[in-house]
Write a structure and sequence with these properties.
The structure holds two protein chains of two kinds. By secondary structure, chain A is mostly helical. Chain A has helices spanning 2-12, 14-30, 36-70, 77-87, 89-96, 102-108. In chain A, 82% of the residues lie in helices and 0% in strands. The longest helix of chain B has 22 residues, at 13-34. Classes of the chains: A mainly alpha, B mainly alpha.
Chain lengths: 109, 177
């Protein structure tokens, strides 16, 4: 039913569709198609960006693992306090006061 | 095209170049009309489209039509772009500056007005009708091909095409079209 209606309407609209195609041809011919080399450049750029991103992720992971392995393993709050006091006097004071910065603790665990 | 379709699934650089020269302008025109006559965006999108085609050349089925495959990717790109942009607003900004320039040399004033009216009528179509309309009447694809590209049932495609064509015809009625 819909198909017949559509076909009928298309047949009735031949002039309109002809104008549409004519307009399309004029517009398409007026377009300035980028040279094929632009595609190659873009392709290489995307590839390079992906590779660089992959390297950054890999580097960040490696640094994280190294830091994780080098950092002292805190088994209780005193260890954490000792570790923090070595590097961060302020944090040590906070710990001593009982005002524990959990975000900082997590960073160093 | 025949050499691409019949023998190989992985496009060579030379085949890619041929396809680009053969279909690039068509795809760019489709993007331009889909994106409210944003010529620069269409230029960027056609480059992006062919970059994707090259990157996904392994997924191209040798027995499939390149046109259908290309428009499937193009259609999805437009859908994504629609999510990020207010197309109607972009069209309104560009219609006064761009469309009158495109092919204006060959037109009389009346023809220009008719073309502009037609562009407006197409651009006013809802997002779920416009791509179907352009694929059917601009790109001259069949209903089954459009259904494959848009992943819609053929019945839905026909219904939307019918509504869209009626709407455009209504807008152009004053020109007796």
């Amino acid at each position: 039913m819909e198909k017949d209606q559509l076909k009928d309407l298309e047949n009735e609209s031949k002039e309109l569709l002809s104008l549409l195609k004519e307009t399309r041809d004029i517009e398409n011919n007026a377009l300035d198609l980028p040279p094929v080399e632009a595609i190659t450049t873009r392709r290489k750029k995307r590839y390079t960006m992906r590779r660089v991103s992959a390297w950054w992720v890999a580097a960040a992971l490696a640094v994280g693992i190294i830091i994780g392995n080098l950092s002292p393993r805190a088994t209780n709050i005193k260890d954490v306090s000792d570790y923090a006091s070595t590097y961060y006097a302020d944090t040590c004071r906070s710990l001593a006061d009982g005002d524990i910065n959990f975000a900082l603790l997590i960073t160093h665990l | 095209m025949k050499s691409v379709n019949s023998t190989t699934m992985r496009l060579t650089a030379e085949q890619f170049r041929t396809l680009y020269l053969e279909h690039g302008r068509r795809a760019q025109g489709f993007f331009m009309r889909m994106m409210g006559y944003d010529v620069q965006l269409a230029r960027d999108m056609v480059q992006d489209l062919f970059t994707r085609i090259w990157e996904h050349r392994d997924t191209f089925r040798a027995d499939a039509s390149f046109t259908t495959w290309m428009f499937s990717i193009a259609y999805n790109m437009c859908k994504n772009e629609y999510r990020h942009r207010e197309i109607v607003q972009a069209y309104q900004e560009h219609i006064l500056t761009t469309t009158t320039d495109i092919g204006a040399d060959a037109d009389t004033l009346e023809q220009q007005q008719r073309r502009q009216m037609l562009q407006k009528a197409i651009n006013a179509l809802p997002d779920n009708q416009k791509p179907l309309f352009l694929l059917r009447y601009d790109e001259e694809l069949t209903v089954p091909e459009i259904a494959r590209i848009t992943m819609l049932p053929e019945g839905t495609v026909k219904t939307r095409l019918l509504t869209a064509l009626k709407s455009v015809k209504q807008s152009m009625s004053k020109y007796n079209l």
